[in-house]
Amino acid sequence: MVQENKQLDIYKVDTSKKLNKIKVLIVILSLVAVLLMILIILHIINIYKNYRVFKQYEAQAIQIVQEQEEKARKEEEEKEEKERIRQERLPKLTDVGKENIKNIYHSDTKRAFLTFDDGPSSVTPTILDILKNENIKATFFVLGSRVEAMPSMVKRMYDEGHFIANHGYSHVYENIYASPESVLDEYTKCNNAVRNAIGEQDYESHLFRFPGGLAGGKYADTKLAAKELLNQNNVVNVDWNALNGDGETNNLSIEFELERLKNTTEGKNSVVILMHDAPVKQVTSEALPQIISYLREQGYEFKSFYDVIK
Question: Into which CATH architecture does domain 95-307 fall?
Answer without folding.
Answer: Alpha-Beta Barrel (3.20)
